[in-house]
Amino acid sequence: MYDALPNATSIRVLDLLEASSTRVRCTMHVVNLETNPAYAALSYTARNPITVHDRRLSDPVALHEVGNPQLPFERSITHPGPAVVPKSFAIVDGARREYYHQTLEHVHNFPYEDVNYPDGPPRVIEVDGCAVQVGENLFRFLASLGELRKQMSEEPLEASELLEARDALRLPIWINAVCVNQEDLEEKAAHVTLARAIFKSALHVFAWVGPSDRLGDRATEAIDIILGYIHAQELRQGDPLGIALDRPLPEEFTMSSILEMTTAHWFALFAFFQRRWFRSAWAAQNIILARQAYMVYGENMVDMSLVVRVLTYLDNRGLGPEFCAFGRAFLTGEPVSDPGRYVTKLLAAANLEGAEPSPASVTEALVVEPKDIFTFIRGFHYIRQHRRPRLTSALSALRDLDTTDPRDKIFAFLGLVDDELGIIPDYGATIQDLYRTATVATIEKRLRLSILSHVQDAQNTNIRDLPSWVPDFSVRLGRVPLDKGTTSECDFRASGESVYRLAANPNGTLGVFAIRIDTVSTVTDMDVDPVSQILKVALGLPAWYPDKPLSWCLVKAGGGSSSEELRPRTVSRVEALWRTLLADNVKAEGYYPGEFADYLGNGFASWVLRDILETRVGIHEHAELEKMHWVRSLGVDSFCSKLALWSAMYDGHQVVAHQELNNIHIPYYERAIGKLYRKRGDEREQYQLDLHLGIPEPTVGILHFPTANRLMECVGDPVDELDAEIAQEHLSGAYRANARSRLTSEERKGAASFEERMRIATEGRSLFRTPRGRIGLGPRSVGKEPGCKDEIWILSGADVPFILRHEKGDRYRVVGEAYVHGIMYGEKLGAPCNWEDIILV
To answer: In the chain, where are the structural domains located?
Structure first.
């Protein structure tokens, strides 16, 4: 059946003769891409595409019994906590309860993740009279294609887009699993190289995301709702009278802002985007290259641009983190609504993380990472905007997506990049050899060490026997690299204009020229109670940062011209802290250098203020619940602790030892408020004195940090009434909205802007401090290996610093890239430098 192809640009395509749920029959012929043939191409995944399913609960009647451990919206927790906390308690989750009531027509089905759901036995299709085995998922697509053809041939069509879709269905189709001889490794490798041409030349690409199910049907409703919401917003933005919408655009956008979207809609959409196709590296390549693409779901066909539009909108409005956390919590047993998350956060902050939960409350990790859907859509836009970027840039954008064969983490992206690295797809090569070859080729091509920014956390390494400086591309990186491999995307120049001049050794080591800067002493992951965790690390710094970091400034020249220049500045530890949390990502189009940085600095102050207020409002929310009085107790404890940390930062104290941190805790609520009153009085006196002395711009407190006066204004407000502009969120409960209502509109916007940039910079990273008073961001594994010393180095040819773990002598292992405030722009190259020859193993 597979005769040799006549030339390097020839491919086989299928003509579908008959397709139903019981039989598929087709013929195959050869076309030459150089003749511009008319055909379609299929993008799909071989395995069962659905990863989130729903099942019927065993006894729906019993679910209404209070305390039933199977209650789908109740989370039971058992732990050996302090005496103030009951040994066992339950949290009723409002969002889960809403979902339960919104899906009653499904007879009490509840969702769960199962990536090993049976695919079904292989099916047989007929190709040129020969029986060919295919997977169940491919057979279902062909059956759906046949049904779609039948539907469109029987219905009268007038709209041009429907006529175009009908014509697309009639085209011959290229399907990798059938049109390529999978037994011929040379042909298979040749088609990997040809993939770019195949998908770019196809008139249409069909993206088969899988068969229909209950969750998928509701997800398509959700897509329609969001598209309608987007359209209504667009109308209103051109309508100053606001008559196109009957409600104002929300100031801070959340999932609750789209009122027509129920909890059931949001979860169904989440489950739909958990399907395998949306996290496939090959699917991303296919759809990026496509001229025109259709998503085929069951017996439905949707223009893929509409799906892209929905995902892009959710991402651009900053809904990604909330959307992913919402869906993840639904499947793992964590609280979904904010009130439940508040209680869980209090327990974690009270050092109850090590508790033994009951089986009903065990949190399981998801196999399919929810964030990958936004990796998919961001990578889609990035590659299309940058045309053919470098391999390091493509990996930065798409590396976290899945492939069945680890080699495809390189091969899948070769058709998207312009690097002439000499890498030829070879499925006979070992994974280790391929990854090392790709790494060395990238270094030698650019004489830069940007590819080292892709080194994963050591505990995540999957491929054995890789040198520490060679990334294991088969696993998720889990963070956005600081150096994406192009000068236009990396402002940092830690090693100046130096280039890499040594070479990789045959024994698998890499020689580098480097400067030792500092060591890592204190580390926090920022994932339990971020504000408290980062303030505890920052308190170990001196009040004024030890280095004079370079910052971008607007320098005016003669003739009214101006330019951006890096200038050294003395900065407080507060500024060093918030700039580190952003990895100094403080530029924005339309702003002068320093202007947007000041806005983000104020956003940091608002973010800290909002966190303290949320704890304060949480106390009030639970004040009247007698049986939950321990929640109030923990809330008061958390609030007082945050005020104590704020006070120590405000007063300029340096607290290095962990024991000293415990000593600054204020034990009583009344004392905390009293101290705040006194500080407010001091601020007012200082302000009046500055006015009396004629100081033109009197300052109060610390720049970019909440003042006592502002804290007192917010904390002293009654918390039983919501601001009229802040709608109560049906997915989150009232306490977060209540806290936000205490902030001004500008503070809310600033906090949201800061938090979004901070999330990007800190995701997958830990905050650390050094003995010399520096602060930085590094891999999750930094400082986690007992008995090991993690050191900060500047490597010649690397734009960012790296954390290296000393082995012996001059040999080091790469832990990962780092942001260290004060050394990112070559500050350490001005003084005499002690360059050393070291070996990376």
So the answer is: 386-521+774-840, 530-763
